[in-house]
Specification:
The protein has 16 helices and seven strands. It is of the alpha/beta class. It is globular and about 60 Å long.
């Protein structure tokens, strides 16, 4: 075990990350997951010396690959650590070496070999109309692939608004009949919505599974409570300006420069559940409201239809 720890920290140092930086991240992740500080060493252990490597099959349907791009930008663990050390990625179209028929054979083999034991991550909504005219892979429709793979998984994690709730594909008029995974297949899923979601929420869900042997507690929409238990508004650093009725009425104004509340500019924070103000993006650098852009509610169901036009007060 000590040898594994030493090798892990040596790899971190080679990438320019110190042990202190790593432990700082583990502390942040532990707090994000809603666990006490006593779990910090255990969370670190999941990365430094994992005792199990669950097989992951990552399916891509109607999407823009933005969720994969977000996941690739996790800071700790870096994506190669996540893939090679913590998870066994058996299939992921974007990052796997195989292509074409070889990739599809790999998918078939991975499902057969790990039936009932693998984690299925789905990115993208599923078209249900016109016999796959709105999406096929290897000659098979999105719906056919999903029906074949998802029910055989130990758990299905939907990453992004599209697989969780349908996303932009399901917005009116939705000619392809796009639906979320749970709607298309009639199964329960763990939903990590956002456009894209914060990768720390995906990592936290996986770490919860590896650390505690179960998926995190969910809300009534299938979202992890540790990430989606409170509204943006309740956690927003501009909340005091809202209470004092200090609003931005025009972008690039003096009120905007002073960091006043963006509610009058169409911020959907009061209706949106997510941990953006706490987790932020890009290694905790910033998030939309901090950068002066109102929340558009991208982690809520049907946000394209329900919250548009954006930048206008509801």
């Amino acid at each position: 075990m000590e040898k594994e720890h030493k090798e892990f920290y040596e790899r971190l140092e080679q990438k320019g990350f110190s042990r202190r930086d790593f432990m700082r991240y583990c502390t942040f992740l532990t707090a994000t997951m809603g666990l006490s500080s006593s779990f910090v060493p255990k969370v670190a252990e999941v990365f430094a010396a994992p005792t199990q490597r669950p097989t992951v099959i990552w399916l891509n349907f109607g999407e823009c690959t933005g969720c994969t791009e977000a996941a690739l930008r996790t800071v700790y663990p870096s994506i190669d650590e996540l893939i090679l050390e913590i998870l066994d990625f058996a299939y992921h179209e974007t990052i796997m070496a195989a292509a074409g028929d070889q990739a599809e054979e790999q998918l078939k083999h991975a499902v057969e070999k790990n039936k009932g034991k693998f984690i299925c991550v789905v990115e993208g909504a599923i078209a249900t109309k016109f016999n796959g005219a709105y999406g096929k892979i290897g000659g098979r429709t999105f719906l056919e692939i999903a029906k074949e793979v998802c029910p055989q998984a130990a758990a299905v994690i939907c990453i992004g608004a599209c697989s969780s709730f349908g996303g932009v594909q399901a917005a009116a008029p939705n000619p392809g009949g796009y639906k979320s995974v749970s709607q298309a297949l009639g199964i329960k899923t763990v939903n990590i919505p956002g456009c894209p979601p914060n990768p720390v929420n995906f990592v936290g869900t996986i770490v919860n599974y590896l650390l505690l042997g179960k998926l995190p507690a969910l809300d009534d929409l299938g979202r992890p409570l540790f990430a989606y238990g409170k509204t943006i508004h309740d956690q927003c650093p501009r909340r005091s300006h809202f209470e004092n009725e200090e609003f931005v009425l025009e972008f690039c104004s003096e009120e905007a420069a002073l960091g006043y509340c963006l509610y009058k500019m169409g911020c959907r924070g009061p209706e949106t559940y997510n941990n953006c103000p706490i987790a932020k993006f890009n290694d905790g650098t910033s998030w939309p409201v901090e950068a002066g852009a109102p929340c558009i509610g991208c982690s809520e169901p049907d946000f394209w239809d329900k919250f548009t036009p954006f930048f206008e007060e509801l």
